[in-house]
Fold this protein.
Amino acid sequence: MLRKFVKSPYIKASIALIVSGSVLIMLSNVLSKTRFTAGMETINKTLMPVYIGVFIAFLLCPIYNKLVKGIYTRLRDSGDISHEALKGPSNMRLAGDKAKQPEDPTVRMKRNLAIAKIGASAISILIIVAFFALIGYFVIPQIVMSIVNLMNTMPQRLAYFSSWSEHHLQSFPQIVKWINEAANAGTSEIIDWIRDNILKDNFQNLANMVSAQIISVVRGSANVFVGILISIYLLNYKETIFANTRKIVAATCSEQRSRSLYEFSKIINETFIGFIVGRILDAIIIGILTYVCLLVLNMPLALLIAVIVGVTNVIPFFGPFLGAIPSVCLLMLEDPVKAGYFIIMIFVIQQLDGNVIGPKIVGSAIGISSFWVLIAVLIGGGLFGFLGMALGVPVFAVFYRYAGKLTNNKLRKRSKETDIRSYTDYAKFGIEENELYGENHAREKLNKDKPNR
């Protein structure tokens, strides 16, 4: 009995999860207590423009490729038409045209491709500049004004919320007590923090804080500018970079190993483009939809809340909750009734996103179930914070899909079934395979097994 219990697949899976989780926790503790973390922070700060450039190029790559293709096709077609028009009928040629040599097609193709790349690069730069100009001119000033206004009126908002709870929540005295304690503590803590961190030592800390923020903004702007230049370089020379990479792989790896590397790279490209671009578009759509709904319902802090909801919506599974919680808290300080309306509104929007908008945009780019999405978000968030929560899912999906391909290849080599339905067992529930998947599946399986018998 004990041996059967130990050999159970559930016990093996539980042990594997516990061991892997323990290893990750120990690795995280070791890295946090050594100089490795500080060294990685220095490396990340140095390479931040490269990261930004790769990310921008990654997002613009589909648009850039379509622009190059469209411009090049138009130049090629117009060149061919004009060349045929100049040629004319044989009996209508002029004597001067005989001395004119036709242009080399290779030279014309290279020239058209160069023009197409220059045009696509210019349009890509305009897209980037227009995006940052839109954010900097319309979004950021309103967000800053909302935050400043919120901080200036925080004591009055806390007092209003406390009085509202005393008037409307008389049947729940314990909740009213908690709200009063939180309101009073919040006011005193804000005053103490301002006195200790800003007004101390003749505004020296205030000057240090302002100078640090200015340096951070200047450094961030410089990183973005250099990142844009790097992204344009990557977009124009990515074919040469990939060609050199294939050359190195061909020189150092066997044909089978090269095929595996190309297959793994293809999975990475498909998964990250489908997921990251899809999630960003989905977040933008949800943010705009939330902003419009807040304006229609005449709710305060509409733009600030819409940005919070849109940014956190990039994170799968937990994103809606991470965005809704601070938004509800902000609205509770303004008008608790409107906070209740907001909860209903965000629930409807997230249902629309989860069932209609998200599947249409992201599609099946991830290729993993909701359970593995949850595990990937938990592990990524626990180890790398917000960035880990956002990128943990595509990273896990890459290894999951590649492991699935390797498994299917091994099964095909052994002439075994690759359909997961052939390995599903519902006999414990009294359900036969034919009942669940139908007679067609059983007939297909029988036909596949015949040659092996």
